[in-house]
Amino acid sequence: MVEFWDDFFSYLASVGYMKLVRIFWFYFLFEFFRYIFLETLALFSWKFKQRVNRKALQEARKLMWDESPLVSIIVPGKNEGKHIFKLAQSLREQTYKNYELIIIDDGSDDATPEICKNLERNGMITLFLRNDVRGGKASAANLGLRFAKGKYIIHLDADCSYDRDAIENIIIPFYFDQRIGAVGGNVMVRNYKESLCTTLQAIEYTDTISVGRIVTSHLGIYRVISGAFGAFRSDVMQRIGGWDIGPGLDGDITVKIRKLGYKIHFEPLAVCLTSVPNTFRKLIKQRLRWDKSLIRFRLRKHRDVFLPNQSFKLGNFVSFAENVTYNLVLNIFWYGYLFDMIFNYSSQLKYIIIMNFFLYTLNNYFKFILFSPFRERKHAPIHYFLIYIPLMVFYFGYLLRLVRSVAYLSEIFFKASYKDPWNPAKTSRHAKEMGL
Amino acid sequence: MNYTLHILKKIRGHLNPELYLKPIFLLKGNEKHDPLVNNLTDGVIYSLDQVKLVIPVMEQIYLKVADLSFTRSLSFEAQMIDKILNMMYSRDKKELEPIPYFNSGIGYSFPEASINFGYMDEWQVLDILDIAEKEGLFASEYLDRIYLCNNCSGGFLSYREVCPHCASTNASSEDLIHHFPCAFIGPISDFKNEIDNQLNCPKCNKMLRHIGVDYDKPSIIYTCGKCNSKFQDISVRAKCMMCTKDAEVQYLIPRDVKMYRMTKKGETSAQTGYISTSKDIEEFIGTVKLETFKTMIKYEIERLKQTDYNSNIAGIYLKNAGELYSMIGASSQRALLRDLVEIVRRNIRSSDLITFQNVNIVLVSLNEIPTKVADNILKEIINIISRLIKQNFKNFDVDIRYSVHQLNTRLSHELQIQQVTKDFVD
Q1: What's the rounded Cα separation, in Å, for the pair B168 and A335?
Q2: Does B221 sit within 8 Å of A241, measured CB to CB?
Q3: Does residue A49 lie in a domain region?
Q4: Sheet architecture: strand order including B361-366
Q5: With 0-12 CB in 10 A as exposed, 13-18 as middle and 19+ as buried, what is A422?
């Protein structure tokens, strides 16, 4: 063992800068450049812009409070009754009170209808709507949208909870910029201590998702408003006809709004806590569903974004290109890189794997600590996560990459998303026929 | 027929056993009689020539009536239970069966019991029969459940579907349509057009073709015509047609309707006179028991034989007391009787005695005063009682009478008490 480490350090000392770049070309060319260099620049630029826009933001807040528009909160779901009381209670704590809460039960077969009817009678729910026959999340959300009266629509997941000022903060950006059509909330992990799986997801959410969305929003290429917490202009939702069939409807609706020429904004101050899958099995199932949507929606349904036709918009093109490049193309490249290493550095592979581990771990610590001041709740202690960061190499670098690969292949060759039981077959069949 | 029922109510609803137990036969013409009339009469004759045919029936009834003793209880409930037992026993009837009856205030009529109550108070029958059942006088068998108004206990309820927000009945429903290909969902009116009868999706403009294939109707939605609110669960409310109160159905009073069978204890109670153990009014302050009263009258007569004094016995008769008690209920009845005793007590000397012969008749001894003075005292008492009842029960015409007799040393005390009460029998 000692001999192995002696050899490893001798190899490390013998590797010059050029050879290091040659061996880790994938990291330096794509990942370091994108996730460290560009993101750091973008974050500083965002912070600067925030400082510049400080007064405008205050003005927007004032405008919002002066108008105090009616906000329709719609919560579609199946068998979510057990969460609804807590949700309604947490919403009562909100600083913003002028809202109507619409719960849509998509064919629940548990006590959800009884619970919700009771809450409706007690005034904790404004309107309870039920489809006796399950129609899928999109139709449930559209039913809520159909009867919503608010100027803004907020889509929530029943099992989430929200900061006291979350509703207020997610509405304010609409008053800051009239061109904003939708605002995404900042989704954080509530059950991060539940298991190793949830802890790793919590690091991913704070690092890649939360900070990543600040960057993409700032650059104008933010592409997925989370279904757990998103706000939409009601008139825009009417124009696009609400949600289309999923899975992946969150990303789809964001693209539809972008196509109309509206901006999509990420609001880090609008914080929502969600419970993430607590086992790797559940996580893989969830991510397979999410990742398939890249092929289905980006490359199939909305492929016109890449085409120089009348509806071509550079921002949308860049957003799509970045998404497809960094998720699909580089995922394929990564296997090329793997072959490159196996064929060209087969004798040194064992040292390269260890160097790869240290390099990415260093990268992850650097990012985690450097980006901390840019996060919402920057004063929250981060020491709990620090010992888990080395595991992110396996989680993000290998597990999620593998899951992505499987998802892309199954969607490209088998259109697997249309068979996903997450959506009823009766609707998926039509979506497949129509290429939706 | 209404007239027949009216007469029947007058007789069977009376509190005096000599009246309410009388055999009644229907002289039947072509008219169809209602079930209550049929249940409360003892037979039918088709001409007056047939009277002799019913004599055996009458004899049988009188034979059974002779077995009966009547309650001396002052409790309204006890009086009613005693009446029901007496009626059933004298007619050799074992079962008291509720009959669905349009003119009943609760939808069901227990003929022997319900006849004592007005339309608005008929619900009290259920309470009285429950007491009788608890006392072991009846065994019961469940038949049905009725719901009564939570305000007036009336059973004539109109059930309506109403808006859960404003309780208006002006609500209309529409099917919700889910269009599968584009996931749009909305009321059917969203899909209708003014050109033809086709349904077109407002989101994707496609024509809806085949239910279950490209669309379905997962539920319905109501729109209130008054407050314009939308809802899926329409509320059901019951409007009481007696007091007009509109109540949610969960607040109605559920009552079991049972068939009652007279037990051996019930039969015995009819023979001995029913005395309730829990609901009875044993004694009011300022009164003595009837037995004590009789004894005291007996001694007074003996005393008078040795002196030149003049003593009197008086009776106060509340003729339509049953009607009043059924109107005001048991607790108010106690309060009324208490007031009545107090009025009498205030107007007589403390050495004079008061007792209740039954719930209608109060007996008073007025010793060592001329009969004329006693008569004046009674007049004053009657005036005060009449005023009291008039003030408290505005819609009720009280029929109150009195009678004063000078005590006769040659007649027995029993006979003299009977003479007082005999004055009140019409």
Answers
A1: 68
A2: no
A3: no
A4: B354-356, B361-366, B312-318, B400-406
A5: middle
Tokens of A133: 């026959």
Contact in structure between B317 and B331 (CB atoms under 8 Å): no
Residue (of B374, B380, B362) closest to B406 by Cα position: B374
Euclidean distance between CA atoms B365 and B295, whole angstroms: 12
Specify which residues B267 forms β-bridges with. Answer: none
What would the 3-class secondary structure string for A242-272 be?
Answer: CCCCCCCHHHHHHHHHHHCCCEEEEEEEEEE
| Amino acid at the residue A342 | I
**Do A360 and A270 share a domain, yes or no?**
no
Q: What is the pLDDT of residue B279?
A: 44
**What pLDDT, on a 0 to 100 scale, did the predictor assign at position A187?**
93
Let me know whether A187 and A222 are in one domain: yes
C-beta of residue A97 within 8 angstroms of C-beta of residue A72: no
What pLDDT does residue A318 have?
Answer: 87
Contact A241 B184 (CB under 8 A): yes
DSSP string of B284-324, one letter each residue? -TT---HHHHHHHHHHHHHHHHTS----EEEEEEETTHHHH
Which residue, among B91, B61, B89, B85, has the nearest Cα to B71 in the 3D structure?
Answer: B85
pLDDT digits (tens, 9 = 90+) for B167-223: 999 999 999 999 998 999 999 999 998 888 889 999 999 999 899 889 999 999 999
Asked which of A235, A254, A279 is the last residue of a domain, the reply is A279
- Give chain B's end-to-end CA distance (angstroms, integer): 25
Question: Which one, of A154, A78, A152, lies nearest residue A116 by Cα?
Answer: A78
Is residue A257 included in any domain, yes or no? Answer: yes
Are the CB atoms for B254 and B147 separated by under 8 Å?
yes
Q: Please name the amino acid found at residue B297.
A: I
Q: How many angstroms away from the CA of B231 is the closest CA of chain A? A: 7
Residue A231 lies in a domain: yes
How far are the Cα atoms of A195, A205, A298, B349 from residue A215, in angstroms, in the given order? 29, 14, 20, 104
For residue A116, what are its two tokens?
């919700």
CA-based nearest distance A358→chain B, Å: 48
Which chain B positions have a beta carbon within 8 Å of A245's beta carbon?
181-183
pLDDT at A310: 65
pLDDT for the residue B73 = 63
For A130, the 3-state DSSP assignment is strand
Asked if this assembly's ipTM is beyond 0.95, the reply is: no
Last residue of a domain, one of A234, A255, A279: A279
> Where does the pLDDT of residue B276 fall: very low under 50, low under 70, confident under 90, or very high at 90 and above?
low
Q: Does the beta-carbon distance from B183 to A135 stay under 8 Å?
A: yes
- A300 within a domain of the structure (yes/no): no
Pair (A262, A334) in one structural domain: no
Q: Hey, how many other C-beta atoms are within 10 angstroms of the C-beta on B390?
A: 12
Q: Min CA distance, A121 vs chain B (Å)? A: 8
Q: pLDDT tens across B328-382, in order?
A: 766 677 778 888 888 998 999 888 999 988 777 889 999 999 999 999 999 999 9
Q: How far apart are CA B245 and CA B239, in angstroms?
A: 6
- Give the model's pLDDT for residue A64: 96
The answer to whether B175 contacts chain A (CB < 8 Å) is no
**Which residue in chain A is spatially nearest to B221 when comparing CA positions?**
A129
- Residues B43, B115: contact at Cβ < 8 Å? no
CATH, residue A202: 3.90.550.10
User: Structurally, how many domains does chain A consist of?
Assistant: 2
Complete domains list, chain B, with CATH: 2-145+255-272 (no CATH), 164-233 (no CATH), 290-422 (3.30.70.270)
Task: Specify the DSSP class assigned to residue B200.
Answer: B
Cα dihedral sign for A340, A341, A346, A347? positive
Which of 229-248 (B) contact A at CB < 8 A?
230-233
For residue A365, give its domain range.
Answer: 2-44+314-430
